[in-house]
């Protein structure tokens, strides 16, 4: 607070009293012999006078000036403890009591201007906390005269608006706090009277940040594995969690009694074994979301070994069978060794590897059993009306009793169906989606056998065509397709086409349709532009309506052939007559563009019309025998 004094003096303007601004802040008042009067000091914008003095009575003072103002020399206003709020326009009014009550003499208005160095009205605390990813605003409001300017420094460097950092009305805002936002921030308010600073240390709270992630590690058996994982965090009360294949290492039976997570986050696995191989994930956490993670692969190299060789292996009589050999090896380059057969039913397998072998497998006993058999198998094809019920048998025998399952072949969506207790397929009610191939699978521990059938649902719209192919030419396209099931009625086809263009949506071309042939599964579309992309789709219809469109096929027509004025003919045409006919030979012309497709042989009698004898002579041919011709001699 500023402790200054301001003195305003009243001087005489009439024979008794007057009021003017003193040229000095402190001066003796004039008019000591003035008649009885009231001195009133008012301030612009205040409803109550700053001070009123009548005679020898104590002055009445405005509450904001209580204890700070007084009259000096009778009429001079003295203000103590000057503050910025005291700045304003002041006027001295003199009321003469021996004059009419409405008659006053007013002095001129005087502007009090108060200069002061900056004073903070609002500033950040010495320590500020923020959370990663959240916004933060550091408020800095200062008062002074002249109005102070505010600048922000971070770690001694002047800050400027950049990216998510904004400085508005002296307040510093960061849109998304990161670990790099932490630091020492200083707000500096300055004007011509001085400057003032406030400092706050911003600490950023958030989940840990992994500084040293684990690395992929390759070890031999019996070596110790050390997977490093070091992190930093604020708050620093971190706990390291290690997972293998998304399961806590302390919950894995083969690891929980062997592993140790050290204080710095390193995972120790002593004397590694083949089963320790896998993907390990380190996740440091301090309770704040969301904890980071980093992964590495531990590979334990070891000789080849057979794991969990079954005690018994069941093979089907009369069919091929498989004797499984579950193995583990690292590197996985395995050379199968001997297959030792004892007593014709017991088998052992030995393996070898660059790193050696861990010996033979334990024996497995091969048991031959009859495979499951179909007692009642499905027919090759079933036809049934839509909405009806269709029951397709698939009943099997076997030891042990086999399990029967049904699958719709080539269907990406699951059709609604159920399987009866005896293995039969129940389709109820029959729908268009049930149409297609179905497979019955019968399996037990000995073998799996399958049987397929085709279901054709009658009384529906046609199914989509398939295998749409387009063979293009310069201005033509030949579209061919494979029809789908007709739904039990005669179906027709419509070919839809559109010129594809890279234009706005409003300028896109409309699809055009051309009816397909009454019989056949191909159509030649003409009138196309050369070097242009077209899209084609085929739609099937029957008396019940249209089926779905086929998949759209996009093609590009061939480039137009260049125009030529004429083609060079063959040269050196010669002939020789024989009993069989006339033998011709010639020399082919030089290569031309566009290339020659074929030659045409023409003949005429004397001055007659030229007639085509052969319209498709290969361009690679240079001789031929024309049967039935005779040489005509000139008369």
Automatic annotation (TrEMBL):
InterPro entries: FN3_dom, FN3_sf, Ig-like_dom, Ig-like_dom_sf, Ig-like_fold, Ig_sub, Ig_sub2. Keywords: Cell membrane, Disulfide bond, Glycoprotein, Immunoglobulin domain, Membrane, Repeat, Signal. Its main location: membrane. Residues 118-203, 207-299, 372-456 form the Ig-like domain. It is found in: Cell membrane. Residues 1-22 form the signal peptide. One of its GO terms (biological process) is cell-cell adhesion. This is Immunoglobulin superfamily, member 9a. It comes from Pygocentrus nattereri (Red-bellied piranha).
């Amino acid at each position: 607070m500023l402790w200054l004094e301001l003195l305003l003096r009243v001087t005489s303007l009439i024979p008794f009293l007057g009021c003017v601004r003193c040229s000095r802040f402190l001066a003796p008042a004039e008019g000591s012999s003035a008649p009885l009067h009231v001195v009133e000091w008012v301030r612009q914008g205040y409803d109550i006078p700053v001070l009123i003095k009548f005679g020898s009575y104590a002055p009445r003072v405005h509450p904001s000036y209580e204890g700070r103002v007084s009259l000096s020399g009778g009429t001079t206003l003295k203000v103590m403890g000057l503050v910025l709020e005291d700045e304003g326009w002041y006027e001295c009014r003199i009321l003469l009591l021996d004059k009419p009550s409405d008659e006053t003499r007013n002095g001129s208005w005087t502007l009090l201007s108060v200069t002061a160095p900056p004073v903070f009205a609002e500033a950040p605390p010495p320590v500020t906390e923020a959370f990663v990813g959240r916004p933060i605003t550091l408020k800095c409001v200062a008062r002074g005269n002249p109005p102070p300017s505010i600048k922000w420094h971070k770690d001694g460097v002047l800050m400027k608006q950049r990216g998510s950092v904004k400085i508005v009305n002296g307040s510093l805002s960061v849109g998304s706090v990161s670990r790099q936002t932490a630091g020492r921030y200083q707000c500096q308010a300055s004007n011509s009277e001085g400057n003032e600073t406030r400092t706050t240390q911003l600490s950023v709270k958030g989940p840990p940040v992994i500084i040293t992630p684990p690395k992929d590690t390759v070890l031999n058996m019996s070596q110790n594995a050390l997977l490093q994982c070091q992190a930093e965090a604020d708050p620093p009360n971190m706990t390291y969690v290690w997972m293998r294949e998304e399961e806590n290492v302390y919950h894995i039976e083969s690891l929980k009694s062997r592993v140790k997570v050290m204080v710095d986050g390193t995972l120790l696995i002593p004397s590694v074994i083949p089963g320790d191989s896998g993907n390990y994930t380190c996740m440091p956490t301090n309770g704040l979301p969301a904890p980071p993670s980093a992964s590495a692969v531990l590979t334990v190299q070891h000789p080849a070994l057979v794991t969990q060789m079954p005690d018994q292996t069941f093979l089907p009589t009369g069919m091929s069978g498989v004797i499984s050999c579950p193995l583990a090896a690292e590197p996985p380059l395995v050379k199968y060794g001997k297959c030792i057969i004892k007593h014709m039913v017991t088998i052992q397998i030995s393996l070898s590897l660059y790193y050696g072998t861990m010996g033979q497998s334990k024996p497995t006993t091969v048991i031959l059993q009859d495979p499951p058999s179909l007692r009642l198998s499905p027919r090759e094809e079933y036809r049934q009306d839509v909405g009806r019920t269709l029951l397709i048998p698939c009943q099997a025998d076997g030891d042990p009793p086999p399990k029967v399952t049904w699958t719709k072949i080539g269907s990406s969506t699951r059709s609604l169906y159920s399987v009866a207790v005896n293995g039969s397929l129940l389709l109820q009610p029959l729908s268009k989606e049930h149409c297609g191939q179905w497979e019955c699978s019968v399996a037990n521990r000995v073998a799996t056998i399958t049987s397929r059938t085709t279901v054709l649902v009658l009384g529906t719209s046609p199914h989509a065509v398939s295998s749409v192919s387009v063979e293009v030419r310069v201005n033509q396209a030949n579209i061919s397709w494979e029809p789908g099931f007709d739904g039990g009625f005669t179906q027709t086809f419509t070919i839809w086409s559109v010129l594809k263009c890279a234009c706005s949506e409003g300028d896109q071309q409309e699809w055009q349709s051309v009816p397909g042939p009454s019989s056949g599964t191909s159509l030649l579309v003409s009138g196309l532009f050369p070097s242009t992309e077209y899209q084609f789709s085929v739609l099937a219809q029957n008396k019940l309506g249209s089926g779905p469109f086929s998949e759209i096929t996009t093609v590009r027509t061939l480039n137009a052939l260049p125009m030529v004025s004429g083609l060079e003919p063959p040269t050196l045409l010669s002939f020789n007559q024989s009993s069989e006919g006339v033998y011709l030979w010639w020399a082919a012309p030089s290569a031309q563009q566009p290339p020659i497709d074929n030659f045409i042989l023409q003949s005429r009698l004397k001055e007659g019309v030229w007639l085509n004898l052969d319209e498709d002579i290969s361009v690679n041919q240079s001789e031929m025998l024309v049967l039935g011709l005779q040489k005509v001699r000139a008369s």
